[in-house]
Design brief:
With 100 residues, the protein is of the alpha+beta class. The chain is 50% helix and 29% strand. The chain is built from four helices and four strands. A four-stranded antiparallel sheet has the order 2-3-1-4, with helices on one face. A hairpin with a 2-residue loop joins strand 2 (38-44) and strand 3. The longest helix is centred in the last third of the chain and has 15 residues, at 85-99. It starts with a strand and ends with a helix.
């Protein structure tokens, strides 16, 4: 299932992570593990934020996905199902077929 991860990084913890190299290392591990189809980094709600869209094969992936971010950077992490345009079209077509 295609999902989007949004992580807000605690400013103090992220500052330390940048100085020590832990933040770029954690982001690199996350990218290598999740192999996202899209990754964006910027500011949201006044804090460093990343958005990753990736395929979650199984819900058992949830704990390892966020744990590094929670433990090292006091991050607030959300993971939500999302669709691309093709997924939406397929879903709307299925809805149309069932509503007759």
């Amino acid at each position: 299932m295609r999902v989007m991860l949004r992580a807000h990084f605690d400013t103090v913890a992220a500052n330390e992570g940048i100085k020590s190299g832990a933040l770029p290392a954690a982001v690199g591990r996350m990218m290598d593990t999740l192999k996202p189809e899209a990754a964006y980094f910027g500011l949201s709600e006044g804090v460093r934020t990343c958005w990753l869209v990736f395929d979650m094969q199984d819900s058992s992936q949830l704990p390892p996905v966020g744990e590094d971010l929670f433990m090292q950077f006091n991050a607030e992490v959300e993971i939500s199902p999302v669709m691309n345009r093709d997924d939406l079209a397929k879903g709307l077509e299925a809805l149309k077929a069932t509503s007759g």
